[in-house]
Design a protein that fits this description.
homodimer, alpha+beta, 2 helices, about 40% helix, elongated, disordered N terminus
Protein backbone atom coordinates (compact mmCIF):
# COMPACT_ATOMS: atom_id res chain seq x y z
CA UNK A 1 0.00 0.00 0.00
CA UNK A 2 1.79 3.14 -1.10
CA UNK A 3 1.73 6.45 0.74
CA UNK A 4 -0.69 8.96 -0.66
CA UNK A 5 -0.07 12.67 -0.34
CA UNK A 6 -2.18 14.58 2.15
CA UNK A 7 -4.25 16.38 -0.43
CA UNK A 8 -5.84 13.20 -1.77
CA UNK A 9 -6.60 11.48 1.53
CA UNK A 10 -10.36 11.15 1.90
CA UNK A 11 -12.36 8.78 4.06
CA UNK A 12 -16.10 8.90 3.69
CA UNK A 13 -17.70 10.59 6.66
CA UNK A 14 -14.40 11.95 7.95
CA UNK A 15 -13.33 15.56 7.61
CA UNK A 16 -9.77 16.46 6.73
CA UNK A 17 -8.61 19.45 8.72
CA UNK A 18 -5.53 21.44 7.90
CA UNK A 19 -4.75 23.62 10.84
CA UNK A 20 -2.90 26.87 10.19
CA UNK A 21 0.54 27.45 11.71
CA UNK A 22 0.63 29.36 14.97
CA UNK A 23 2.83 31.74 16.89
CA UNK A 24 2.59 31.01 20.60
CA UNK A 25 4.13 32.50 23.73
CA UNK A 26 3.55 32.16 27.47
CA UNK A 27 3.78 35.30 29.60
CA UNK A 28 4.27 34.95 33.35
CA UNK A 29 3.21 37.69 35.73
CA UNK A 30 3.82 38.42 39.40
CA UNK A 31 0.22 38.86 40.45
CA UNK A 32 -3.33 38.39 39.31
CA UNK A 33 -3.59 42.17 39.02
CA UNK A 34 -0.81 42.13 36.43
CA UNK A 35 -2.45 39.24 34.59
CA UNK A 36 -5.74 41.13 34.47
CA UNK A 37 -4.00 44.29 33.30
CA UNK A 38 -2.34 42.34 30.50
CA UNK A 39 -5.65 40.77 29.45
CA UNK A 40 -7.33 44.18 29.46
CA UNK A 41 -4.56 45.78 27.42
CA UNK A 42 -4.57 42.84 25.03
CA UNK A 43 -8.33 43.16 24.57
CA UNK A 44 -7.85 46.82 23.61
CA UNK A 45 -5.06 45.90 21.22
CA UNK A 46 -7.21 43.19 19.65
CA UNK A 47 -10.07 45.58 19.12
CA UNK A 48 -7.92 48.23 17.48
CA UNK A 49 -6.05 45.66 15.44
CA UNK A 50 -8.69 43.08 14.50
CA UNK A 51 -6.45 40.22 15.66
CA UNK A 52 -8.09 38.12 18.37
CA UNK A 53 -5.56 35.53 19.51
CA UNK A 54 -6.43 32.39 21.37
CA UNK A 55 -5.83 32.88 25.09
CA UNK A 56 -5.25 30.37 27.83
CA UNK A 57 -4.65 31.82 31.24
CA UNK A 58 -4.67 31.25 34.94
CA UNK A 59 -3.78 33.45 37.91
CA UNK A 60 -0.23 34.31 36.95
CA UNK A 61 0.25 33.45 33.31
CA UNK A 62 -1.29 33.98 29.91
CA UNK A 63 -0.50 31.90 26.85
CA UNK A 64 -1.17 33.80 23.65
CA UNK A 65 -1.55 31.88 20.42
CA UNK A 66 -1.82 33.70 17.13
CA UNK A 67 -3.04 31.63 14.21
CA UNK A 68 -2.18 32.28 10.61
CA UNK A 69 -4.95 33.93 8.60
CA UNK A 70 -7.01 32.08 6.05
CA UNK A 71 -4.22 32.03 3.51
CA UNK A 72 -2.56 29.49 5.79
CA UNK A 73 0.75 31.27 6.29
CA UNK A 74 2.13 33.36 9.13
CA UNK A 75 2.97 36.77 7.76
CA UNK A 76 4.66 39.91 8.99
CA UNK A 77 1.25 41.11 10.28
CA UNK A 78 1.21 38.28 12.84
CA UNK A 79 4.83 38.90 13.79
CA UNK A 80 4.11 42.61 14.26
CA UNK A 81 1.11 41.77 16.44
CA UNK A 82 3.27 39.39 18.51
CA UNK A 83 5.80 42.17 19.06
CA UNK A 84 3.03 44.50 20.21
CA UNK A 85 1.88 41.83 22.67
CA UNK A 86 5.48 41.61 23.93
CA UNK A 87 5.46 45.37 24.47
CA UNK A 88 2.25 45.21 26.50
CA UNK A 89 3.69 42.51 28.73
CA UNK A 90 7.01 44.28 29.17
CA UNK A 91 5.27 47.52 30.12
CA UNK A 92 3.33 45.70 32.85
CA UNK A 93 6.28 43.72 34.14
CA UNK A 94 8.45 46.82 34.32
CA UNK A 95 5.69 48.54 36.31
CA UNK B 1 5.77 46.10 4.97
CA UNK B 2 5.73 43.14 2.65
CA UNK B 3 4.34 39.74 3.52
CA UNK B 4 6.93 37.19 4.52
CA UNK B 5 6.42 33.49 3.93
CA UNK B 6 5.60 31.35 6.93
CA UNK B 7 8.95 29.62 7.08
CA UNK B 8 10.85 32.80 7.89
CA UNK B 9 8.52 34.27 10.51
CA UNK B 10 10.32 34.41 13.83
CA UNK B 11 9.59 36.55 16.87
CA UNK B 12 12.03 36.29 19.75
CA UNK B 13 10.52 34.35 22.63
CA UNK B 14 7.63 33.06 20.53
CA UNK B 15 7.41 29.53 19.20
CA UNK B 16 6.18 28.84 15.70
CA UNK B 17 3.94 25.78 15.65
CA UNK B 18 2.98 23.99 12.50
CA UNK B 19 0.16 21.64 13.34
CA UNK B 20 -0.22 18.52 11.25
CA UNK B 21 -3.38 17.96 9.21
CA UNK B 22 -6.06 15.84 10.85
CA UNK B 23 -8.77 13.41 9.97
CA UNK B 24 -11.72 13.86 12.29
CA UNK B 25 -15.11 12.21 12.66
CA UNK B 26 -17.89 12.27 15.25
CA UNK B 27 -19.65 9.01 16.06
CA UNK B 28 -23.04 9.13 17.76
CA UNK B 29 -24.29 6.18 19.79
CA UNK B 30 -27.63 5.22 21.27
CA UNK B 31 -26.48 4.61 24.82
CA UNK B 32 -23.58 5.05 27.16
CA UNK B 33 -23.04 1.31 26.98
CA UNK B 34 -22.43 1.60 23.23
CA UNK B 35 -20.13 4.57 23.75
CA UNK B 36 -18.10 2.61 26.29
CA UNK B 37 -17.97 -0.41 24.02
CA UNK B 38 -16.67 1.76 21.19
CA UNK B 39 -14.01 3.31 23.44
CA UNK B 40 -12.93 -0.14 24.63
CA UNK B 41 -12.74 -1.51 21.10
CA UNK B 42 -10.89 1.58 19.95
CA UNK B 43 -8.38 1.18 22.78
CA UNK B 44 -7.70 -2.38 21.62
CA UNK B 45 -7.32 -1.23 18.03
CA UNK B 46 -4.93 1.53 19.09
CA UNK B 47 -2.79 -0.91 21.01
CA UNK B 48 -2.54 -3.36 18.16
CA UNK B 49 -1.99 -0.60 15.64
CA UNK B 50 0.14 1.95 17.45
CA UNK B 51 -2.18 4.78 16.42
CA UNK B 52 -3.58 6.63 19.41
CA UNK B 53 -6.06 9.21 18.12
CA UNK B 54 -7.23 12.20 20.08
CA UNK B 55 -10.63 11.47 21.63
CA UNK B 56 -13.32 13.80 22.84
CA UNK B 57 -16.44 12.13 24.14
CA UNK B 58 -19.52 12.45 26.26
CA UNK B 59 -22.36 10.07 27.05
CA UNK B 60 -23.52 9.39 23.51
CA UNK B 61 -20.82 10.52 21.15
CA UNK B 62 -17.11 10.17 20.50
CA UNK B 63 -15.12 12.49 18.27
CA UNK B 64 -12.02 10.78 16.93
CA UNK B 65 -9.21 12.91 15.54
CA UNK B 66 -6.27 11.29 13.82
CA UNK B 67 -3.26 13.54 13.34
CA UNK B 68 -0.74 13.14 10.56
CA UNK B 69 2.54 11.57 11.62
CA UNK B 70 5.75 13.53 12.00
CA UNK B 71 6.25 13.85 8.29
CA UNK B 72 3.32 16.25 8.34
CA UNK B 73 1.11 14.54 5.77
CA UNK B 74 -1.90 12.28 6.08
CA UNK B 75 -1.12 9.01 4.41
CA UNK B 76 -2.93 5.84 3.51
CA UNK B 77 -2.04 4.45 6.97
CA UNK B 78 -4.23 7.10 8.60
CA UNK B 79 -7.03 6.53 6.11
CA UNK B 80 -6.87 2.78 6.75
CA UNK B 81 -7.03 3.37 10.50
CA UNK B 82 -10.05 5.67 10.02
CA UNK B 83 -11.81 2.94 8.06
CA UNK B 84 -11.09 0.45 10.86
CA UNK B 85 -12.60 2.91 13.33
CA UNK B 86 -15.66 3.14 11.09
CA UNK B 87 -15.94 -0.64 11.17
CA UNK B 88 -15.83 -0.71 14.97
CA UNK B 89 -18.59 1.88 15.19
CA UNK B 90 -20.74 0.15 12.59
CA UNK B 91 -20.42 -3.18 14.36
CA UNK B 92 -21.64 -1.61 17.60
CA UNK B 93 -24.45 0.36 15.99
CA UNK B 94 -25.67 -2.70 14.12
CA UNK B 95 -25.70 -4.61 17.44
Amino acid sequence: MSATPSTTIAVEGWETRKLPPQLTCRFTFNSYAQTRQFLDDLADLSESNGNYPNLHFAKDFVTVTIAAPDDGALNEAEAAFARQVNSLANRILQG
